[in-house]
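Hi R.,

Here's the input for the citrulline complex you asked about:
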Amino acid sequence: MLAITRAISDRLAECQLTHLERQPIDLVRARRQHAAYEEALRQAGCRVWRLECDGDLPDSVFIEDTAVVLDQLAVITRPGAPERQPETAAVARALGDHRPLAWLKEPACLDGGDVLRLGRTLYVGVSRRSNQAGVGQLEGLVAPYGYQVRAVPLGACLHLKTAVTQVAAELLLLNPDWVDPTAFPGWGWLAVDPQEPMAANALQLGPVVIYPEAYPRTAERLGRAGLAVRSVAADELARAEGGVTCCSLILAEAG
Ligand code: CIR
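And here is the predicted structure with citrulline in place:
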């Protein structure tokens, strides 16, 4: 597996914020945590390719939002925050070495954080960042490869993957206050601890679940379910509303 990451901008503290108050961000600490996250990716079997940051783009570390990468193609998104749209250019250049590219176009808006791939179905959160035109265009691009696209209504959270992620072969981790579990037929699910509403964003890589150490109660639930939790400190990027899925694009490498 290849994990593409992107270095943290000096302007991270000017990031987009939707649900959090702006607070100071310690850049040194954020970069240390980001490097430790990359190390966790390596230990889980990924080759890590860190793209340079564009210093003018505060949120560019959150690379997940710029593309939806499938085995057959990469769809370059049109992020819902206009300030974030310039982030896609460098990511498209990098992904062009690995996949045929397709682009979402105005009036589509879509953040990769709103796209949860479960087998051949792409669930897309209709959020402040991703609209129906984004869902429709994505469907048009991926249907020829046998993927279905399903729009999912979302509660008061930033992205679909703030509310639900896959943690094992047939198991989701979700916050039932933000997404209806019946939207994912055939999937088992585990709820986050009610005291940890932000705890549904986990990054599954094979048998390992990379998971923020800030949510010990939910981590215990994952452990009780028999999952191998690899804990990472991610609280500094969480001040910018970033989670563990959003700091990488994971793709299978050829050969
Ligand atoms: C934003 O609001 O766009 C960034 N500050 C955080 C994006 C996090 N992305 C993600 O979870 N996929």
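One thing worth noting: Residues 122 and 149 are 5 Å apart (CA to CA).

Cheers,
M.
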